[in-house]
Amino acid sequence: MEDLVLAILTLALSVCFFEHLTQSGMDALFIIVSLASMPAAGYLAYERGRSQRRWVYLAAFIGPFALPALYFTAAVANLRGKDSVTRPQA
Question: Which residue, 20, 67, 5, is CA-closest to 39?
């Protein structure tokens, strides 16, 4: 349930942020935010036992919308009863 709440929250924040960017015409900031979301998506994918490479490429393609998508996949997996693999703590 926590992943679903995080997914909805990050999606709403991403939509509000992109709406503000389109109104102000800040293309450079959009590119910077999209590039910054790539390592964040990779790290979150690693924590949830998902493919880092796949999620980094997805973040490169859709930008910060990859973060809510990652939370949605974890929420759907929990609802279906297939808990994602967690990495052991070092």
Answer: 67
Model pTM score? 0.59
The DSSP line for 10-69 is HHHHHHHHHHHHHHHT-HHHHHHHHHHHHHHHHHHHHHTT--HHHHHHHHHHHGGGHHHH
Reduced to 3 states (helix: H, G, I; strand: E, B; else coil), residue 4 is helix
Among 1, 26, 2, 8, which residue's Cα sits nearest to residue 69? 8
> What is the overall mean pLDDT for the chain?
79
Distances (CA, A) of 1 to 16, 20, 67, 71, 73: 23, 29, 16, 10, 12
